[in-house]
Amino acid sequence: MEPAATASLIAGLEALGLDTGAKHLAMLQDYIALMRKWNRVHNLTAIEGDMDTVTHHLLDSLAIQRYLHGNRILDVGSGAGLPGIPLAIYQPSRSFTLLDASAKRVRFLRQCMLQLNLLNITPVHARVERYTLAAGFDTVVSRAFATLADFATAASHLLAPGGRLLAMKGRYPDEELTALPPEFHMLGVHTLNIPGMDAQRHLVEIGWEADAND
């Protein structure tokens, strides 16, 4: 990774109050190297430069760490492992399931699991609508869904009692919040300050009131 990008990563981690020790830095740098290698063939992400990868992928993902709830986390539409892999690197005591409908992306996630020795991630090849887990998840997060309503409707069956949906968004999503089905309630919209990024970023926290007859 370019020296300027490494310096940006260290400064960004410090701004987020995260550890900048050699172990975490090495894992993040190895992850970026893997992403760049696979991206040449498999088109995992449109962002290729080291500086933008640091801000728009790593720091953007890690900025939501404080809002995670519970120990079982599901990353829906994980793609290149975002936000799941950076979060798993910093949260080894939590269990992360990385779900994606693309087989090639899941192969990449499995390679990351092996090469980074991430024992707390489980890559899964499935569509969110068809995936089930009896125990449910404490937090279900996504950066990829088009609308809050689509995300909430597709993923709510995967929530454990008291679980939360976290949707990563750009600008404040007024219209999407208005369109949420009535069984979902907004717990908060958090402004995310991503070091080195000028664009607006928000995190929408949603709760679900399951049908009383279920």
UniProtKB/TrEMBL annotation:
UniProt keyword Methyltransferase present: yes
A Pfam family matched in the record: GidB
One term of GO molecular function: rRNA (guanine-N7-)-methyltransferase activity
SUPFAM superfamilies, sorted: S-adenosyl-L-methionine-dependent methyltransferases
Any one of the GO CC terms: cytosol
Keyword annotations: Cytoplasm, Methyltransferase, rRNA processing, S-adenosyl-L-methionine, Transferase
EC class (word): transferase
The protein's Enzyme Commission number: 2.1.1.170
Catalytic activity from the UniProt record: guanosine(527) in 16S rRNA + S-adenosyl-L-methionine = N(7)-methylguanosine(527) in 16S rRNA + S-adenosyl-L-homocysteine
Residues noted as binding S-adenosyl-L-methionine in the record, renumbered to the chain: G77, L82, D100, A101, S102, V128, E129, R143
InterPro entries membership: rRNA_ssu_MeTfrase_G (IPR003682), SAM-dependent_MTases_sf (IPR029063)
Subcellular location: Cytoplasm
Similarity section: Belongs to the methyltransferase superfamily. RNA methyltransferase RsmG family.
Database matches in PANTHER family: S-ADENOSYL-L-METHIONINE-DEPENDENT METHYLTRANSFERASES SUPERFAMILY PROTEIN
Function: Specifically methylates the N7 position of guanine in position 527 of 16S rRNA.
HAMAP family: 16SrRNA_methyltr_G (MF_00074)
Full protein name: Ribosomal RNA small subunit methyltransferase G
Gene that specifies this protein: rsmG
